[in-house]
Design goal:
With 384 residues, the protein is of the alpha+beta class. The protein is built from 13 helices and 15 strands. The strands form 2 sheets. Strands 3, 4, 5, 6, 7, 8, 9, 10, 11, 12, 13, 14 and 15 form a 13-stranded mixed beta sheet that branches. A hairpin with a 2-residue loop joins strand 6 and strand 7. Helix 5 packs antiparallel against helix 7 and helix 9 packs antiparallel against helix 11. The longest helix is centred in the middle third of the chain and has 20 residues. The two termini are 27 Å apart. The relative contact order is 0.16.
Length: 384
C-alpha cells in the first residue's frame, strides 16, 4: 500500500476553540435527567482525553495498512440487545441489510421511516447500555456532540410547545444482524439532527453516512448560552473562505443563493455532484492546511483510527483534486452552504437561515459499508 505523509493539525481548531463550542452545563433541574452529573459539566481537558489524544494532533506518517480496530465492540451491542425485553427486540433487532441498506432520516423520529426502538422507551439501565455502545463507536467529542444535539430537543420543545414532533429522547437505535466477528452486521442511531450508521465486517468498520444538525445553531441566552454543536465545522470553513483572494473567491463561490437543505438529502446512495468550487491544487500551502483542518474537524466525531485512516486515503487519492465550493451569503448570520468533494467522498454543510445548520458526510462507494461488503461477499466461501 502506498505510503503517505500527512502534515495535519488534527483537531487543532477544536482544542483552541474550546469543547466543540458546546456548553452542556445545567442549572435548571427540569432537564437534569437528560445527562448524568458526570457528563453535564464538560471540561476542555475531558474533551481531549481518550480518543482525542495528543497523538491525534501530532504529525502523522507511515504505512496505512488495514487498521487494527479500536473496538469492534460486538460485546457492547450484545449487552444492549440482552437488556431488551422480547417486545423491544422486535422493534430493535433486524436481519442484516447486506447491499440493500435500510431507510434513514434526519427528521424527528415521529416523522421518519427509520427502524428502531426509541431511547425514550428504554429504562435507565438500558440507556446506559446504549450509551456504552455509542461511546465505543464515537470519539469523546463525537459522543458529546451527539448528546448535545439530542438535548436541543428540550430547547425546541420550550420554543415550540405546540409542535407534536418535539419529543426529547425520541431517537431510534436498531441492530442489523448478529454482532460478532463471524459475519457482517451493523447498527444505526438516528433521530432529529443525528444520524449514525456503522457497518462492521470482520476488523473493518464503515461509518458513513453520518449527519449532524443543530437548531438553534447557537444558543445565545439562558443557562445553555454558548452551546454551538457545529461551531468548528462552520468557523474553519469561514476561515478558509476569508483567506481567499478575489480570484479564488470567484472560483469557490458557484452561486449566490444558498440551498435550503443538503442537496443529497437522505438518499441511500449518492453519486458525485457537479464539479464546482476551487480545487485544492489552486490553494496556497497555508490554505490547504486549513482545508485539511476542516476535514479533520468534521471527521473528529469518529474514533481516531477511523478518522486518520479516512484522511490518509483522501490524501493518497489526490488531495489536489478535492474541491471546496460555496453558495449563498458570506456572513454567518445569513443563509450559506459549502461543499467539499473528492474522488470518493462528499461533505455538505448548510445554514438555512443563519441559525439552523446541517452537515453530512457521504462516501460514494462506502456508504453503509458497500465496498467492504462487496469484497467480503466476493471472497467469502459462504456467498460463492
Amino acid at each position: 500500500m502506498k505510503k503517505v505523509s500527512l502534515n495535519l493539525g488534527f483537531l487543532l481548531a477544536i482544542l483552541t476553540g474550546g469543547a466543540y463550542g458546546q456548553n452542556l452545563s445545567r442549572t435548571d433541574s427540569h432537564h437534569a435527567e437528560s445527562l448524568k452529573p458526570a457528563e453535564s459539566e464538560v471540561s476542555r481537558e475531558a474533551m481531549v482525553g481518550g480518543n482525542d489524544s495528543p497523538a491525534f494532533i501530532s504529525f502523522i506518517g507511515g504505512n496505512y495498512s488495514r487498521y487494527k480496530p479500536f473496538s469492534i465492540s460486538a460485546d457492547k451491542a450484545n449487552a444492549f440487545i440482552d437488556s431488551l425485553s422480547t417486545e423491544q427486540k422486535k422493534e430493535a433487532v433486524f436481519p442484516f441489510y447486506e447491499l440493500t441498506p435500510p431507510l434513514w432520516s434526519y427528521f424527528p423520529a415521529s416523522m421518519s421511516p427509520a427502524d428502531g426502538v426509541a431511547v425514550k422507551d428504554l429504562s435507565a439501565a438500558q440507556k446506559e447500555r446504549l450509551f456504552d455502545l455509542l461511546k465505543a463507536y464515537l470519539s469523546n467529542s463525537g459522543y458529546l456532540k451527539t448528546r448535545t444535539i439530542m438535548d436541543l430537543e428540550n430547547v425546541l420543545r420550550e420554543m415550540q410547545p405546540n409542535t407534536p414532533s418535539r419529543i426529547p429522547e425520541n431517537y431510534l437505535v436498531a441492530i442489523y444482524g448478529t454482532p460478532s466477528k463471524d459475519a457482517p452486521w451493523g447498527w444505526s442511531f438516528q433521530g432529529h439532527h443525528v444520524v449514525l450508521n456503522f457497518t462492521v465486517v470482520k476488523d473493518s468498520i464503515a461509518f458513513a453516512p453520518f449527519f449532524f444538525g443543530a437548531n438553534p445553531g447557537e444558543i445565545t441566552t439562558g443557562p445553555r448560552k454558548g452551546t454551538k454543536p457545529l461551531a468548528v465545522e462552520q468557523d474553519v470553513a469561514f476561515e478558509l473562505l476569508n483567506s481567499f483572494s478575489a480570484e479564488q473567491k470567484r472560483q469557490a463561490i458557484f452561486q449566490t443563493t444558498s440551498f435550503v437543505d443538503v442537496v443529497t438529502g437522505s438518499a441511500n446512495q449518492v453519486a458525485p455532484l457537479p464539479k464546482v468550487g476551487i480545487p485544492a491544487k489552486n490553494l496556497s500551502k497555508s490554505q490547504r492546511d486549513i482545508l485539511k483542518r476542516l476535514l479533520a474537524a468534521i471527521l473528529a466525531a469518529m474514533p481516531e483510527k477511523l478518522a486518520v485512516k479516512r484522511l490518509a486515503n483522501i490524501q493518497a487519492e489526490d488531495l489536489g483534486s478535492v474541491r471546496f465550493g460555496w453558495a449563498g451569503k458570506t456572513t454567518k448570520t445569513e443563509p450559506h452552504y459549502y461543499r467539499i468533494q473528492g474522488k470518493s467522498f462528499l461533505v455538505e454543510f448548510d445554514s438555512i437561515d443563519g441559525d439552523h445548520v446541517h452537515i453530512v458526510w457521504r462516501d460514494f462507494d462506502g456508504d453503509f459499508g458497500r465496498d467492504l461488503l462487496r469484497e467480503h461477499y466476493k471472497t467469502s466461501t459462504h456467498h460463492k
